[in-house]
Amino acid sequence: MSDYPLSPQLWAFVERTLSFNSTDSSLNGLRQAYSQMCRAFTPARPEGLEVTDFRLDGVAVRSYQPPASPPGAGWPCIVYLHGGGWVVGDLDSHDFICAELAAVLGALVIAVDYRLAPEHPFPAAFDDCLSVWRALRAGASPFALDAGRMLVAGDSAGGNLAAALCLALRDRGERLPCAQVLIYPGLGGDARLPSRSECADAPLLSSSDLDCYHALYLRGTRQPSAYAMPLLAEDFSGMPPTMIAVAQFDPLRDDGVSYAQRLDAAGGEVSLYPGKGLIHGCLRGRGQVAEVDLLYESLLAYLHRFLVSEV
Predict the structure, then answer these.
(1) pTM greater than the 0.85 cutoff
(2) CATH of the domain at 174
(3) In this structure, are residues 231 and 189 in contact, taking their beta carbons and an 8 Å threshold?
């Protein structure tokens, strides 16, 4: 792992993250250690945000409402799907990014607490995300939303779920998000992709970790579909504008690169952020690692384009 040429700031982030690893290798131990780590990296929320937990179509969600009156057309809205290999993570684990997105962009953010594997393997998480999206579209939330400025974003497993959501909506003839943002997503790429071997023992996510997460998520699935692993899709046309941010030293790097190539070949609008010097799971390095802050600048600029009215 020490062979990767990371910046001193990023190595310090890795070491702090790994300090929360538990000797308890059970699923419960893994989740507790992950939650403890997440709490340590979660700053105070920006002042004025109104944060509320509730349910949409039976799924737990958390809203982040900026301290302003909603625009006349309704709130621009980000539906955020958290990472964690479909196995760990919840409404608290990614509070740090949801709060910043709401405060900086002046948009309503809805975080989804989808069901986790292995207790709830595919398609449970996918079904929950689809249910929440449809409920928001149907006006079932307490908020007035601008239907033309609703997008979906997610990191890692959440990037998988965001891409799957867009594929499903397209296939079913439903209105698509105005954009999708996939941050170091796991999309079911072939195990022979170069990044799988080049980054086999990368910090914070190894290729063997990835195999374990896939096995837990796909437990009992005989033939994975594109809604489980979006790179299995046969048709990549008709997708919304897409930003894919990958990390250079990540076994999932080429999942994102491959997906960007497929979307581009199908005539889609796609922006690929190469993530030079980055690793999987680096979003929590905000304010601590210069190259992570550069990633945020690109993410925020892309989201601003779709969410903030210039009128």
Answers:
(1) yes
(2) 3.40.50.1820
(3) yes
Catalytic residue among 250, 254, 255, 258: 250
Q: Of the listed 63, 156, 207, 258, which one is catalytic?
A: 156
For residue 218, is it within any domain?
yes
The tally of domains found in the chain comes to 1
The whole-angstrom separation of Cα 244 and Cα 6 is 21
Q: What digits encode the pLDDT tens for the residues 108-148? A: 999 999 999 999 999 999 999 999 999 999 999 999 999 99
pLDDT in the model for residue 311: 43
Active site residue 53: no
pLDDT digits (tens, 9 = 90+) for 272-288: 999 999 999 999 999 99
Q: Compute the mean pLDDT over every residue in the chain, rounded to the nearest whole number.
A: 96
Task: Give the separation between CA 196 and CA 162, rounded to whole angstroms.
Answer: 22
* Residue 3 one-letter amino acid: D
3 found inside a domain: no
Q: Determine whether 271 is an active site residue.
A: no
Residue 198, domain extent: 8-307
Half-sphere exposure of residue 220, counting CA atoms within 13 Å on the CB side? Answer: 8
Whether residue 2 lies inside any domain: the answer is no
Structural domain contains residue 182: yes
Please tell me the distance from the alpha carbon of residue 206 to that of residue 273, in angstroms, as a whole number.
Answer: 21
